[in-house]
TrEMBL record:
Transcription regulation as UniProt keyword: no
InterPro entries, A to Z: Flagellar_FlgE/F/G, Flg_bb/hook_C_dom, FlgE/F/G-like, LlgE_F_G-like_D1
Lineage: Bacteria, Pseudomonadati, Pseudomonadota, Gammaproteobacteria, Lysobacterales
GO cellular component annotations of the record: bacterial-type flagellum basal body, rod
Subcellular locations according to the entry: Bacterial flagellum basal body
Keywords: Bacterial flagellum, Cell projection, Cilium, Flagellum
Similarity comment: Belongs to the flagella basal body rod proteins family.
Span of domain Flagellar basal-body/hook protein C-terminal: 190-234
Name listed for the protein in its UniProt record: Flagellar basal-body rod protein FlgF
Length: 238
């Protein structure tokens, strides 16, 4: 029964990746079956195969040209710093940015985009530009392009991969609630989004493999049950 349960758990994780194959900036979750010793009386060689998470696939996704001025994609390694719902600092590569009615810059999930001094506020303007270094500039309403002015700079970070962990809010976080320093080497490209790094074909194959393994586990359970019933009948005849 343990094997069938773990197959279902593994299939759930693969299905989650497949469901996010079109999600901007999504990073596939990695998992594998690991041997875990069975506790209790019995031979010490008994083990169960348990589906365990191995972290997140941090490889870059493809680049999608959108032409939208608030769409940005991190070039190479790095992350955009945002404020999670609980107030903690998190990191994302989903650069589909938006403006609230109050002029606050957020990601598509509503998390506030952080700048050097906190959330970035953008005044009402005729045009908004985001530079390669994360600088947010605006052209005031009724003014010409020569009046462009910077109103903030998006915090871009690049912590070591082994320091990052995926949080329940879908953002990457540093262990222990620490925050990363801004890295001037991280750059953005405007008018572009990074796609999910999930390979739909490969993920679908994984799902089929897990489904077949689940069927084998169920057949083994049925076989063991039939053997037990046959043995019980033989004992009753003696």
């Amino acid at each position: 029964m343990t094997g069938a349960t773990q197959m279902m758990r593994g299939q759930s994780e693969v299905a989650h990746n497949l469901a996010n194959a079109d999600t901007v900036g999504f990073k596939a979750q990695l998992s594998a079956f690991q041997p875990l010793a069975v506790q209790g009386p019995g031979l010490p060689t008994r083990v169960n195969g348990v589906a365990q998470g191995l972290g997140v696939d941090l490889r870059e996704g493809g680049q999608i040209e959108t032409g939208r001025e608030l769409d940005v994609a991190v070039q190479g390694q790095g992350w955009i710093a945002v404020q999670g719902a609980d107030g903690s600092e998190g990191y994302t590569r989903a650069g589909e940015l938006r403006l609230t009615p109050d002029g606050l810059l957020t990601d598509a999930r509503g998390n506030l985009v952080l700048g050097d001094g906190g959330p970035i506020s953008v005044p009402q303007s005729a045009q908004v530009n985001i530079g390669a270094d994360g600088t947010v500039s605006v052209v005031p309403m009724g003014q010409g392009p020569e009046t462009i002015a910077a109103v903030g700079r998006i915090k871009l970070v690049n912590p070591a991969a082994d320091q990052l962990a995926l949080g329940s809010d879908g953002l990457m976080h540093l262990a222990g609630g620490a925050t990363a320093d801004a890295d001037p080497a991280v750059t953005l490209k405007s008018g572009v989004l990074e796609s999910s790094n999930v390979n739909p074909a490969q993920t679908l194959v994984q799902m089929i493999q897990l489904s077949r393994q689940y069927e084998l586990q169920i057949r083994a359970i049925h076989g063991a049950d039939e053997n037990a019933q046959s043995a019980s009948r033989l004992l009753q005849m003696t």
